[in-house]
Structure formats: structure tokens, C-alpha cells
Design brief:
The structure holds two protein chains of two kinds. A two-stranded antiparallel ribbon of chain A has the order 1-2. A two-stranded antiparallel sheet of chain A has the order 3-4. Chain A is mainly alpha-helical. Chain A has three domains: 84 residues, no CATH class; 48 residues; 123 residues, no CATH class. Chain A contains 14 helices and four strands. Chain A is elongated and about 75 Å long. By secondary structure, chain B is of the alpha/beta class. Chain B has twelve helices and twelve strands. In chain B, helix 9 runs parallel beside helix 10. Classes of the chains: A mainly alpha, B alpha/beta. The interface between A and B is large, with 66 and 62 residues.
Chain lengths: 276, 433
């Protein structure tokens, strides 16, 4: 963030608002829960933090910092990193914003009652992310989730795990990039849009091509054997799908592909495998 | 009649939610040119949308236009190209004002007077030197410069501002060109609305989605036979059905795109080169698409990098050089294929940048920005105002509403702008009669 959102360039005399804004908009409170004055006050209070070149570590340079007390998110006297964090954590919008983000990502759901419960857990745990994630997964196990389109990376990881394939890293990353998702490299500071955006033409082309790459790298074993055979229910089972068999539409596609690697590639891009 | 029609899928993008309802519409599997008998009348559209349960309370109910727009000869053959400069292009350095305050606000970043490209007949501003190649459009009266464009009450967030532009400031409705797609009598061919680059939510409708090609060199099948995907079929109202439909559209899009650009649909090898998302490359492909017979009429070309918080001078110069080279070559190509009378190209960005430079050799997010419009149908000239003596919280005060530009874009297409945007804004006299 020091580099990506320009915080390292920000000084008390010439504050850079980029990080201060996204801290509130994207990472903690959400738009509508802060003012432009808060963004400016935050930039002053966070000024002076910079990056040690070559080391990637943060360093505070007092002479670059404006320590004057600011009114920030309704709190008086905010002047440095710690008081900024305190003010953000004290804000009423924070727990719900974080809980909704985690629920959306893991459950595919923004169900208000679920988010409220998670938000309560998050607060009670003293903002412990591990507790929040555990509670979110428990909601999922309790059935409080919606179908979720797997993004290229979790889909790729799942496909590699169930097939045992280790496709060439360079080509894999190239195709993941074309599919729109490379770990740690979102398209912008807001992250990946997700959902049906993963059904865009470019993303589907790259994902199909990546499925072929994974299938070609699958070692001999039960998955490849199932793709060689005629029993689609067995293939669904060894791929770890929670269904008895593929839907008719997917069966038609599986039948169209030659048995073996090609059929396995198709199985990996069926809706059954791409949607959790 | 409704019984004869299959259900259409409603896909809400951007909220992450997917809503699927039954609604009279045409069969999405059917080729767009073969379903004239299934074209719903305006009565059907009104009746079915009125009873559709999922237009929730947060969305204004869609009103019916006079009649669904036919696809085959949509827009009277006219095309619209939107070039989107993501990140917030800096108005003041793109169009440096002849104002001492500019040099005071930008002590290290101001473009030196001697480098500014003069625009004939204009004494209060000129062009960034990287845009010298665009002066020919100005001289020909085919360039409109719209300065100070932005929302009256600005939001300095990229995401909010982009969203406001994309959705014409009605954030519960789809993209403003997506609404036009939704009005079409049937689902158009996949390349009818194409985005080149990072994507273009302004083209996202509820019913119809554009084809987004992030990298032309990667838009082909490798060790995949499209016939396998075709066998999956189409249809189905759930998320799986949406995926299948997307695959069918994608197979068609790859086939059409390959034919147009002379690429193969399948390959044995992965592309060795990542396609760069420059404006020039995007516009080069756009010109090919428009000249071809795949029905392309709406294109969005986007590139990022305009968020110049730091090191602005060299970076912005390179970005603008890309824009200028792209537009220059695009119109050469369009003129050569005889389409010049049919194409309007507009350049947009989500906001301008702070009037004063920051301490990092850049400028932070601002308000009033810059749009450009090119084409034979454009009334060349300078629109809007920049007054550095009257800033809004340190930013150029918005003097032209984006709605005014969007109104003219829709007028260009012959689409009812009042219906699509909710209200017309006729304050920008941008098009020749």
C-alpha cells in the first residue's frame, strides 16, 4: 500500500490522499460512511510513513509527518497511525462492511441476517479475522450460501488438486492472467469483480485453454481413468463434485470430446465444476 | 404471443447477485437475423416487464420505448466508439490553459508555453504536445473539445465516479449503452457490442452483455475444439444456464473475431506474446471490427494508467501519445473503408485531476475533466469552461454534465435519449444537424 497507493510519497506539507481514501472506501467502511474532510485529515495523520527501498519495509520519518490533531471520522485529536486505526475500528460501519465482504467472497451471499450475525461475531472476537472466517464457513456448512462462480484461481487450484496435475507454471500464469485473475495482482485497488463477470468471453476462452493444459498434465490415476471410461457418475465423483452425475447438457459436451485428456478438459469447464 | 417466446435471463452485474426471471422475449439460441417472427411488440415488452417480479424496489421500473430496436440495421447503420481513459485523465495538462494561475498551481508539472500545441481560433488553451497529431481534426472542424465535464457534485473516488459515468448517474440501472442493448428486439450478434481492453460496464445490460476481449492475441482456443462446447447447448435459467449461454456466445465471438482479424479459431500453441492494452492497439482492432460484417456497432476501448499521482510528466506524455496515435490511425482506417460518415468517437475519463500538483510529481483526484468527440457528424469547437480563479475545493469546477455528452451519443445513434437516460440534457450542441 505504501507503494501501490502512494503513501510513501505523502508528506505533511504535501499530503497524498490516495491511501487515505481507499483505506475508508474499499478496506474498512465503504463509500458514504466518511467525508472528503475525513480523507484529507487521514492523509495528514498518515503522512511520514515511507518505504525503505530495497527492503520493502515501512519506516516512519517524523520530519515528513504532520502531527497536528485532526478531526477524523467524528473523533477529535487524531494525529498518527495508531489514532487513525482506533478511529476506524471505532466506526459503526466497520464490522458490517468487513463481514459483508467476507460473506460475499466465501458464501456468495449478502444475506442481511447472515451478515448481521457475522458482524456480531467479529465485534465480540475483538476484530479477530480468524474468528470471522470460521463463523462464515460455519454459516456455509449450515446451508446459508448461494451458488458461487469460482474465480480462475480457486478453480485452477481445485482442478489441480483433484486431478493431481502440475501444469507448467509459466503457461498456467499466462492463462490465468488472460482469464483475468493472477494472485496478488488484481486489476485495480478494488479487486476482482467476480460473479458472472467470470463468464466474460475472454475469461471463458482462457479458462477452457487452461482446462486443456491441466488435463494434459494430469498424471495416470483414477481421474484420468474415469475420463477414459464411460461412467460419467464416476468422473463426477472422482472430481469431488457433490452431485450424483453431470446434467444432460454437460453429458452431451463430455460425449462430444474424445475420451481421456480432452474429456477431462471439458469436465473441468462444465458448469458443475465451475460453480460451487 | 408470450407463450411462444422463451424466457430470457436477467443478469445483474456489479452487485454480484444474479437474478433470473421468466419474461417474454426471444429465444437467445436463435440467430439474431432469423427471429423476425418472434420479435416482441412493444405491448409485449410493457406487459411482461410490468409483471416481472424481480425489478426490485431499488430499480426504477423500465419504461417502454416506442418500439424495440431492430438489430439488423440498428442505429441507421451508425456506430459509436467510446475510448475510456481509466484512472482520471488530467484535464489541465491535456489542455493546458493560457493562464498564469496554471503555472502557479503546477510549478513543476505545467507544460511550458512553447510546447503547447495551438488550436486555431482558440486563445485560452492548447493541446499537450503529445496530442499534436490531433490538431488536423480540429482544423477540419471534426473535433469537439469538452472541458470541465463532470458531475456537479463530484465524487473523487475512481469507482464511484466510473460507476456514475457508466450508469449515467443512475446507479441502480445497468450501463447506459447496456440499456440500449436491452432495448434491441432480439439478442444481437456477439460482436455487436465489443469491449477491447479491461472491460466496459457501460455496455452491460440486464438482458444482453457485450463481448469483452482483453487481449486479441489470446482470443482463440488452444487444444479445445469449439464443437465440444457447442454440444453443451444453451438455455436454462440458473447460474449453470447462464454459463452455458456464455459459452455459446463465446464460441460465436471467437469464430467471428478470428474471421475478421485473420486469426485462427484454434491453435496448438499458447500465444507467445501478451496483448498489451493500449488505446492504439484497441482502436486498430476496433477499426477492423467496424469494417467487417459481424454487426459490430458499439465499441469501447479502454486503457488504464491515467491515475497519475506520481511521476506524471513522462507517464502522461506517453499515455497521451498512445491516445493520439490510436485516434489518428483509427480515422485513417475508417476513412479508407468508407465508414467515416457513420462513426462517432468520444473520449471519456472518470474525472480530471486536482488543479494543484502534489509533492510526488503528480496530481491527486479532481473533479472537472475532459472529453473529446471526433467524427464527420461532430460540430467542431470548444465546449465548457475552465476557470482557475473559481475552483471547487481545489479542483476544476464541473461546467458540463456527462449527461449532456451521453444525450448526444444517443442522439447520434437515433436512440431515444430521454428514455434511456431518464432525462435529456440538451446543453451541449455537439452534433451537426
Amino acid at each position: 500500500m505504501l507503494a501501490y497507493l502512494d503513501l510513501r510519497e505523502s508528506t505533511g506539507s504535501q499530503p497524498n490522499e490516495n491511501f487515505s481514501r481507499e483505506l475508508l472506501e474499499l478496506f474498512t467502511l465503504g463509500e458514504g460512511n466518511y467525508s472528503e474532510a475525513d480523507v484529507q485529515a487521514g492523509a495528514l495523520a498518515l503522512s511520514g510513513w515511507t518505504l525503505v527501498r530495497g527492503e520493502g519495509s515501512a519506516r516512519f520519518v517524523a520530519r515528513r509527518h504532520d502531527d497536528s490533531p485532526q478531526r477524523y471520522l467524528g473523533v477529535a485529536g487524531v494525529h498518527d497511525l495508531d489514532t487513525v486505526i482506533d478511529a476506524v475500528l471505532a466506526h459503526a460501519a466497520l464490522p458490517g462492511f468487513i463481514a459483508a465482504a467476507v460473506a460475499g467472497e466465501l458464501l456468495g451471499s449478502d444475506d442481511e441476517t447472515v451478515v448481521d450475525r457475522l458482524s456480531t461475531v467479529f465485534v465480540a472476537s475483538g476484530f479477530d479475522v480468524r474468528s470471522l472466517v470460521r463463523a462464515t464457513l460455519a454459516e456455509g456448512l449450515a446451508g446459508h450460501s448461494a451458488p458461487l462462480v469460482l474465480g480462475p484461481v480457486p478453480w485452477f487450484a481445485t482442478a489441480c488438486r483433484v486431478t493431481g496435475a502440475r501444469p507448467a507454471p509459466k503457461q498456467s500464469v499466462q492463462l490465468l492472467r488472460a482469464a483475468g485473475q493472477v494472485p496478488m495482482l488484481p486489476p485495480n485497488v478494488a479487486g476482482w469483480p467476480g460473479g458472472t463477470a467470470w463468464f466474460g468471453a475472454s475469461s471463458l476462452v482462457a479458462r477452457a485453454n487452461l482446462a486443456a493444459l491441466i488435463a494434459a498434465a494430469a498424471p495416470a490415476g483414477e481421474v484420468l481413468a474415469a475420463a477414459q471410461g464411460d461412467d460419467s457418475a464416476v468422473l463426477a465423483d472422482v472430481l469431488g463434485l457433490p452431485i450424483d452425475d453431470f446434467a444432460d447438457a454437460s453429458l452431451a459436451a463430455l460425449d462430444a470430446a474424445p475420451a481421456g485428456i480432452d474429456r477431462l478438459a471439458v469436465a473441468l469447464i462444465t458448469p458443475e465444476f465451475m460453480i460451487a | 404471443m408470450t407463450n411462444a417466446l422463451n424466457r430470457r435471463q436477467f443478469i445483474q452485474l456489479g452487485t454480484g447477485s444474479v437474478v433470473v426471471v421468466g419474461l417474454g422475449g426471444c429465444d437467445r439460441r436463435t440467430s439474431s437475423r432469423a427471429v423476425s417472427e418472434a420479435v416482441p411488440t412493444s405491448t409485449d415488452v410493457v406487459g411482461s416487464t410490468a409483471t416481472a417480479p424481480t425489478f426490485d424496489a431499488t430499480s426504477p421500473p423500465p419504461t417502454a420505448s416506442a418500439a424495440p430496436l431492430p438489430v439488423g440495421a440498428a442505429f441507421g447503420g451508425r456506430r459509436l466508439v467510446v475510448v475510456q481513459l481509466n484512472g482520471g485523465n488530467d484535464l489541465l495538462n491535456t489542455l493546458p490553459p493560457a493562464d498564469g494561475r496554471y503555472h502557479d498551481l503546477r510549478p513543476t508539472l505545467a507544460i511550458p508555453d512553447a510546447d503547447i500545441v495551438a488550436l486555431a481560433g482558440v486563445d485560452d488553451a492548447g493541446l499537450h504536445p503529445s496530442l499534436a497529431g490531433l490538431a488536423r481534426f480540429w482544423d477540419a472542424g471534426r473535433l469537439a473539445v469538452i472541458r470541465g465535464i463532470g458531475f456537479e457534485v463530484p465524487n473523487r473516488s475512481h469507482f464511484v465516479s466510473m460507476d456514475r459515468w457508466w450508469r449515467a448517474d443512475q446507479l441502480t440501472r445497468p450501463g447506459w449503452l447496456g440499456r440500449v442493448l436491452d432495448e434491441l428486439a432480439e439478442e444481437p450478434p456477439p460482436l455487436f457490442a465489443t469491449a477491447l481492453g479491461s472491460g466496459a460496464p457501460l455496455l452491460n445490460g440486464r438482458l444482453v452483455q457485450p463481448t469483452v476481449i482483453t487481449s486479441p492475441g489470446s482470443f482463440q482456443w488452444v487444444d479445445i475444439q469449439p464443437a465440444w462446447l457447442t454440444a453443451m447447448g444453451d438455455g436454462g435459467d440458473d447460474l449453470a444456464g447462464i454459463a452455458r449461454h456464455a459459452f455459446q456466445r463465446t464460441v460465436q465471438a471467437v469464430t467471428d473475431f478470428a474471421e475478421i482479424t485473420g486469426r485462427a479459431t484454434t491453435s496448438d500453441d499458447l500465444p507467445t506474446r501478451e496483448g498489451g492494452a493500449t488505446i492504439a492497439e484497441g482502436l486498430s482492432v476496433a477499426a477492423q471490427l467496424l469494417a467487417a460484417d459481424a454487426g459490430t456497432q458499439l465499441v469501447v476501448v479502454s486503457a488504464s494508467g491515467f491515475d497519475t499521482h506520481a511521476n506524471q510528466l513522462p507517464e502522461h506524455a506517453a499515455l497521451l501519445a498512445d491516445v493520439a496515435a490510436g485516434i489518428d490511425a483509427f480515422f485513417d482506417s475508417i476513412e479508407a473503408t468508407g465508414l467515416a460518415d457513420d462513426v462517432l468517437l468520444v473520449v471519456t475519463s472518470e474525472f480530471g485531476r486536482r488543479a494543484a500538483e502534489n509533492g510526488s510529481g503528480g496530481c491527486d483526484h479532481g473533479a472537472g475533466g475532459l472529453s473529446l468527440a471526433f467524427g464527420h457528424g461532430v460540430r467542431g469547437g470548444m465546449f465548457g469552461e475552465v476557470d482557475l480563479a473559481d475552483l471547487l475545493d481545489g479542483d476544476v469546477r464541473p461546467t458540463v454534465a456527462p449527461q449532456a455528452l451521453l444525450t448526444r451519443c444517443l442522439d447520434w445513434l437515433g436512440v431515444d435519449a430521454g428514455h434511456i437516460l431518464g432525462a435529456r440534457d440538451d446543453s451541449l450542441d455537439l452534433l451537426l444537424a
